[in-house]
Sequence to fold (277 residues):
Amino acid sequence: MVGRIYPDDFAAFGYEVHPAGLTPPPPRVVDQLRASSVEPEERVRGVMHTFFQPLQKNRLANQTKLLQVWEEAWKAVGWETRVLTLADARRHAEFEAFSARVWQVPLGINPEYDYLCYMRYMAMEAAGGGWMSDMDVLPVSMPRGLGLPHAGRFTVYERFIPSLMSASAAEWRRMRELMVDVAIMKRNTGTTLFSDMHVMYELHERAKVPYVPMWLVVNGSEIARVMNSSDVVCGAWADILAAHMSHSAAKKLGLEGAHDRVALMNRTFHLWRQHCA
Fold:
């Protein structure tokens, strides 16, 4: 259903948000994000982070290619890139205690992967806060060097999907503690997996959402279809920050393999640059 969304606290910032890629957001959303921003720490200013910790050797080649496309794309629009690993989280004085708590969360059949999904929040805090995106997120109309919107409050730009996020270091700390508190409560309830996205969704459904949820990241299948057509209206994407080229986005386009997804991500970004940059 197409329509406006009014997440908690949006009125305080004075704007409405439409579902990304369906009805474009109203004009000047990016300007309003900038107006509500504070500068991050010097060491993370203008930096887009991601988190990459190889687990499966048979997937390493495609993951490395995906990371290369991610870095190329963000650098092309003026951002520095920084790849965080578990070693960054280990530098945190509270690493051992937090790690032990994460292992109490129901982590499903691939526990190492979902453990890392939680630990990346600590890595971001240790790095000094700032912006983080998944490796399969491409910039669309992301302003170069955007500060931390909403005065540094924790913000998720795909509603409850943690694909693109920003926050001060203190907010990364607050959220990682809150998320693990919520997730540990799922022990002994019959829940086998409670990922960081499950936590985000549960928090999103609260009467008072403890983060700022926005919808400024488009499903990658939508922008891929448009960029491969002859009817590209660049202005329709003016306030879409990024595109999430997820596994589900690739499947919507009939693509199954990891190699196909890397190729899709690379082609879509270069078509976007060709048509709209």
